[in-house]
Amino acid sequence: MTVESEAAVEETEAPEPKRDLAQLWVCGFLAVLGILVIVDASRLGGFSASNDPIGPKPVPILLGVLLFAVAALYALDVLRGGHGEDEGKHAGDHYDWKTIGLLCAVFIANALLIDWLGWVISGSLLFWGAAIVLGSRRYFLALAAGVVLGLATFYGFAIGLGLGLPAGILQGIL
Amino acid sequence: MDNLNSLLDGFAAILTPGNLLIALIGVTIGTAVGMLPGLGTAMAIALLLPITYGMEPTQAFIMFGGIFYGGMYGGSTTAILLNTPGQSSSVVTVLEGFKMAKNGRGGQALATAAIGSFVAGTIATIALVFVTPITVDFAIGLGAPEYFAIMMLALVATASVLGSSRIRGFASLLVGLVIGTIGIDAVTGQQRLTYGVPELANGIDIVVVAVGAFAVGEALWTAARRKNGGDEIIPVGRVWMGKSDWRRSWGPWLRGSALGFPFGAVPAGGAEVPTFLSYVTERRLSKHKKEFGNGAIEGVAGPEAANNASAAGTLVPMLALGLPCNATAAVMLAAFQTYGIQPGPLLFEKESALVWTLIAGLFVGNAMLLVLNMPLIPMWVKLLRIPKPYLFAGILFFASMGAYATSGQAFELYILIVLGLIGLAMRRFGIPMLPMIVGVILGPMAERQARMSLQLSGGDLSGLIGGPVSWTVYAIVAVIALWPLVSLVRRRATREKEPVAA
Fold first, then answer.
1. Coil, strand or helix: which one is B375?
2. How many DSSP H helices and E strands does chain B contain?
3. CA–CA dist B419, B407 (Å, integer)
4. Helix (H, G, I), strand (E, B) or coil at B315
5. How many inter-chain contacts (A to B, CB under 8 Å) are there?
6. Which of A38, B33, B72, B299 has its CA 20 to 30 A from that of B398?
7. Which residues are within 8 A (CB) of B51 and not within 5 positions of it... i.e. 6 or more apart?
8. SS3 of B363, please?
């Protein structure tokens, strides 16, 4: 099945080669990852003991080499007009980078605030912020839902099931 | 006989009000996440894993089993009513199911999917009861080199067999293997790939990887394409089947079960291939060939049964060998490890009660799903009306909660968002997710087995190859790895012939 579909893609692409060159970023990522892995591995002590003949070094080195190989073959595939599982249907899509950026910002705000404000406040803000960023215009409803979720999860999971969620500045109040 | 007695003990353990309630919660969550497009059972279990830290392992696994089976039922509902597969294994169901719904036969499509899932789930779980102990007997004699070989097979097979592009599968696998290497080396205590960050010394939790790639990645993916419009839901009438529907459905159910189970039980067999095969078989065997393409009930009954049977099949290698063959099994394996339980041949000896309660729970959950799904489908469909902003805000909320709870450090949240961005990129570039998840779990296990083999052979590299069992396994790996070369040669040959023919 695999072979047939690849062949089919090639056939349809033959008259008009439309390459999705953005995929080269992936190759770059793999190559950088390969460098990181090999640099780290070269720093490891290459000793071998009787109970561990090869030590911790060979596996990362092998992974680094394979990463370079895959990055190179991947680049070759991209240049020949190769596509992923979806057959490149997302290649020309318009992406809403502003929404992604805002969503990441909301997410990181939660990470920064969680230990100080506690889960109930930071989690509620996360829900509220994410809902607004994703297009909800009912500000109060979203906030109310966030607060309810925050309180319910804190009482249910942190106090009820012993999950490690921080109380933060509300310590002693909740 | 021993096994049947243990299974009866399992049933006795599950038929308590508390455990039944947990099974009910499991199947409910499973159906819900299976229905909602973009959510999956692997994500649901990963999200719930931290919450279950306070529960008994047995109860946690009853719930996970319920989610696993529930997801299969839910996926078919979305496929039939929304023309969108809720799960990748429901892709084939869409073909005939949506056409049936459009022709006003949605109720019958849903009924044959639900009853077929029940029949297949029951048959396949019975097969699981008999096949798993045999696999265990075989596996118990295997040593470290054989395990290493089987793990290599699982890694190579998931990366190259599933999906349409091998190179992307391997890229995903390598990223997973690198993530799995991060942290303190278990043998020498040296830190690998931590680059001096103390929080990385304990490695990256598989829960964080799964939640980041599946849940956060999906939320970002939705954010990225926010303006791409919504879906239309077809209303359903009463979910029932007439006499002729029954007559046309039972054959496909049985054949689908027979196709699905073995594929599920083989590393990287998956649910996609058997559902597709079942569809093709039913089209060939049907007396109503003209209906295919316009809503033939056989085309829903067969693939749905195959889908459920393969889900049960994937539990065989997971329980008997500790090998995950789909994303849900991978996360369940991680759950076993979190509880300090090592799946594999010894599991049936050491944790006999847990395993048999889990299997009994599958039977119970399957029966619950039939009851829950047949009359209540119109209610479930309302779930599809939850506005996306709230749905994904909720997912980010639970994802953050779960990730923070794995270690109690805000650092996990930064890793989560990085993995979410990786997940976003993988969706954009069509890179399969499963090899990465399997790599994170199996990578460290394979390295341990390899080093153990070399330890046994005193550093002699031949110790890695082992005996006849691993030779066979390596031969299969070689065939899988070299297959593209064969087809390349064949294609070249036909290309050279073409100009001559012209």
1. helix
2. 21, 2
3. 17
4. helix
5. 233
6. B72
7. A157, A161, A163, B402, B405
8. helix
Whether the CB of A133 is below 8 Å from some CB of chain B: the reply is yes
- Cβ neighbours around B128 below 10 Å, total: 24
Task: For B448-484, write each residue's pLDDT tens digit.
Answer: 889 888 888 877 778 888 788 889 889 988 888 887 7
Contacts of B459 (CB under 8 A, 6+ apart): A48, A53, A54
Cα dihedral B296, B297, B303, B308 in deg (nearest 10): 160
Side chain identity at B407, as an amino acid letter? S
By C-alpha distance, the chain B residue nearest A104 is B417
Of B396, B404, B487, the CB nearest to A114: B404
Could you say which residues from 9 to 48 on chain A have a Cβ atom under 8 Å away from some Cβ of chain B? 22-23, 25-26, 29-30, 33, 36-37, 40-41, 44-45, 47-48
Strand pairing report for B191-192 and B183-184: antiparallel
Over the stretch B85-120, which tens digit does the pLDDT of each residue have? 666 677 788 888 888 988 888 888 999 999 999 999
- The torsion angle over the Cα atoms of residues B348, B354, B358 and B364, rounded to 10 degrees, is 120
From B440, B446, B445, B443, select the one nearest B208 (Cα to Cα). B440
Question: Does the CB of A103 have a partner CB in chain B at under 8 Å?
Answer: yes
Token couple for A104 = 């990441």
> pLDDT for B176-194, tens place per residue?
999 999 998 888 888 898 8
Give me B108's structure tokens: 């019958």
Q: What digits encode the pLDDT tens for the residues B62-74?
A: 999 999 888 888 8
The tokens describing B250, both together, are 């039972």
Give the pair of three-digit tokens for residue B126: 């019975």
What's the rounded Cα separation, in Å, for the pair B254 and B490?
A: 37
Shortest distance between the Cα of A52 and any Cα of chain B, in A, equals 6
Distance CA B294, CA B340 (A): 51
Give one DSSP letter per residue of B130-191, joined into a string. Answer: HHHHHHHHHHTT--HHHHHHHHHHHHHHHHHTSSS-HHHHHHHHHHHHHHHH-EE-TTT--E
Q: What angle do CA B300, B277, B296 make, to 5 degrees?
A: 25
Using alpha carbons, select from B208, B210, B215 the residue that is nearest to residue B391. B215
Cα–Cα distance between A39 and B304 in angstroms, integer? Answer: 49
Determine the 3-state secondary structure of A52 from DSSP.
Answer: strand
Substitution target from B188, B338, B442 for chain A, most A beta carbons within 10 A? B188
Handedness of CA B475, B477, B329, B309 (dihedral sign): negative
Residues of B in contact with A86 (CB under 8 A): 430
- CB-closest option in B225, B273, B390 to A93: B225
Helical H segments across A44-160, by residue range: 58-79, 97-117, 119-133, 139-153
Residue B68 to residue B66: CA distance in whole angstroms:
5
ipTM for the predicted complex comes to: 0.87
